[in-house]
Hints:
The protein is an alpha/beta fold. It has 10 helices and 14 strands. 36% of the residues lie in helices and 26% in strands. An 8-stranded mixed beta sheet has the order 4-1-9-10-11-12-13-14, with helices on both faces. The protein has a 4-stranded mixed beta sheet with strand order 3-2-7-8. The protein starts with a helix and ends with a helix.
Amino acid sequence: MQTLLQAILNRASGLRVLVFGDVMLDHYVIGDVYRLSPEAPVPVVLAREDVWMLGGAANVARNLAALGVMVEVAGLVGNDQMGDRLQNLLAECNILFDGSFHESSISTICKTRIVAGRQQVCRVDRERPADSYAVNKAHHLDLIEKALDSADVLILSDYAKGTLTQPVINRIIKAAKAKSCFVAADPKPNRPLQYGGADLLTPNAAEARVMSGHDPHGTPNWPLTCKAIYGKHAVKNLVITLGPEGMLIARDGQMSKKVPTSAKEVFDVSGAGDTVIATLSVALASGHSLEEAVHFANAAAGIVVGKFGTAVATPAEILNAARQQCSPQ
């Protein structure tokens, strides 16, 4: 296993990836609770730290950068303080981002989580209506297509904030395939978008059941779910994340197997899906099989869920986890 993961990491470092989707900022207000408010039956959080992290499509890009991949991200942000902070965080991670994606007519999407100890107390979202974030201006689309000239992989990251629309998805996937790019998408089924031509889809369990038209609360029939999703999207590779149960994989609509999770401790699942699509994409684009790619993604996701916030897994951490897994207990 360690040899496989090292081979994937070596090949991934030579790739160039474009991430296009909902670019966001994650803000954590961390503190402690000592009493309830006299004004309402809610805890009073004494803040002691503010932590800012890349979120949404930007966190997918951060995961790729942590693997040593050359990465560029595209999506609209506000011409505001949050947008400046987000761009600075991207620069710190050596992630390319064209400044023309700043728009004065919108505010940067920001999720603020209030955390006391290890418990999230509440979340405050700042965002405009979804159509505000649609990337449909000619110069923006031209920039994205130009970035595809040197890209090996295109990842479409949909957080249902409005960046991705059907006409743009159709245009960008067509352009990517014309340039022999591997195309992956992380969908949100409450926005019924089609990803025809994509090489990989990575919904979670609930999303997959909605995408297939099945009851998300009933007993799952995963073979039928996989066939139904293939019938709608004709995607070659489907990986459904099942939380603590691991991942389910299918190719050309045929369910293959379940791969159990490698997580030893789950602290925070925020951004785990970003890690999965990032690692799967680079492994598959590097010529590895779907099963090999899933083992790589599983190792990385197992590390990320043991960390606080929208975290990433480094090559050293992935290889160390593989060594520990192979070592006699």
